[in-house]
Design brief:
about 400 residues, alpha/beta, globular
């Protein structure tokens, strides 16, 4: 028997539409067959009923680093044996999946170990969300590379950038990530507001990636780097902290469908850390950008920039499995609960370039999560452990 029926008080389909009540989803193997309040199969099916609960699409986190643990100082694990590092990766993936996140976009692994892990997941050796992998981050020579050993591919000049992009694709990358500006977590003398890759280098990266069928995510805090990345044709802006300084750029993003992945939670954990260990100069860089973060989010929301959920899980005190905290911050900054859920489902699917996940609809992959209560009214409920997680129709939690 491959057909199964899940029933609950409601279904939120991920498009931003109001919940359907009662909620019924029929699956056949890994695909959804039908969804609605009156779905009733004529043949014998396996049934699972969840009274008082809501069925949602599996959440999608567009910005994680599964190899890292959310420590105040990530470098302390750099010399650990490879086997230990991969086992930690597996545990982070497991925690993420159990939290109801069924797809992640990993935008910076370590030494390409994540590609082997993805093969293990496909072979059924481990359980993990669907993995959309960037490989190494393409960057100019930078202090950040020393802080995150094995995560960067430093390149200088157009042809070196082209080579770096091709290397990631050859290794198995699904997308390319570039550093358009400096980073908050790099040593103090690296400025997040400063543009890094030149316009020509960015265009070379984007053109090469797009010719090879890969989307491009641009790490960008400062407005000069954001502007260059948008002009170069990237697909997503990661962080986008100072976007509010140029509403014209925001309007171009809205018109072109360039997604903002704001990673609100990450900056909060660095600016006001719950424990010791983060250098004071890095904390100061984050604190100086809290108001910018909030202003940019509200501007993007007002201008119709598509906003996709991304947590930057693995930054200090930002641990895997607590991804849904990002949605609560989105609502605090003005999103409705249903829009925040869409940011983590249908909008996030578009940001990753996938049309088979993110929405509960016939023909889509049956990545489904059941939570107690009504997250469409209180998105904070998604921070609780789900009642059930289905990945491709198979119950995995």
């Amino acid at each position: 028997m491959t057909r199964s029926l899940i029933t609950a008080d409601a279904v939120i389909d991920g498009t931003g539409a109001a919940a359907v009540r009662p909620g019924r989803v029929l699956m056949d193997g890994e695909r959804i067959v039908a969804v609605g309040r009156s779905v009733e199969p004529t043949d014998e099916v396996a049934r699972a009923d969840f009274p008082g609960a809501t069925i949602l699409p599996g959440l999608i986190d567009c910005h994680v680093h599964l190899m890292d643990a959310g420590l105040p100082d990530a470098t302390v694990q750099d010399r650990d044996p490879v086997a230990l590092r991969v086992l930690r990766l597996a545990e982070h993936a497991r925690a993420t999946l159990r939290a109801g996140v069924t797809t992640v976009r990993d935008v910076g692994g370590r030494d390409h170990l994540e590609f082997g892990f993805r093969r293990a997941a496909r072979d059924g050796l481990v359980r993990a969300p669907r993995l959309v992998l960037a490989g190494k981050i393409v960057s100019i020579t930078t202090a950040g590379a020393a802080s995150w050993s094995g995560m960067y591919r430093q390149a200088n000049g157009v042809w070196d950038i082209v080579k770096a992009v091709r290397e990631q694709v050859a290794a198995g990358a699904d997308l390319i990530k570039v550093m358009a500006t400096g980073s908050v977590l790099s040593p103090g003398h690296e400025r997040p507001g400063a543009a890094q890759l030149t316009p020509d280098e960015l265009r070379a990266a984007v053109d090469t990636a797009h010719r090879l069928g890969r989307r491009v995510a641009a790490h960008a805090h400062g407005i000069a780097g954001i502007r260059r990345a948008v002009e170069a044709g990237v697909d997503t802006i990661e962080h986008g902290t100072h976007l509010h300084e140029d509403v014209g750029v925001a309007r171009i993003m809205a018109a072109r469908g360039i997604h903002l992945v704001p990673t609100l939670k990450a900056l909060a954990g660095i600016a006001t850390p719950p424990g010791p260990g983060i250098p004071e100069d890095i904390i100061a860089k984050a604190r100086g950008r809290r108001d910018d973060r909030d202003t940019t989010f509200r501007l993007a929301l007002a201008e119709g920039v598509p906003i996709a959920m991304g947590t930057d899980a693995a930054t200090p005190f930002n641990v895997h499995g607590r991804n849904a905290e990002e949605l609560t911050i989105m609502v605090e900054l003005g999103m409705t609960a249903l829009a925040a859920i869409a940011a983590a489902t249908s909008v996030a699917a578009r940001a990753t370039g996938r049309d088979d996940v993110g929405v509960i609809a016939a023909g889509r992959l049956a990545d489904l999560v059941v939570w107690q209560g009504d997250p469409g009214r209180d998105v904070g409920l998604l921070q609780q452990p789900p009642l059930a997680v289905f990945l491709g129709g198979a119950r995995v939690a």
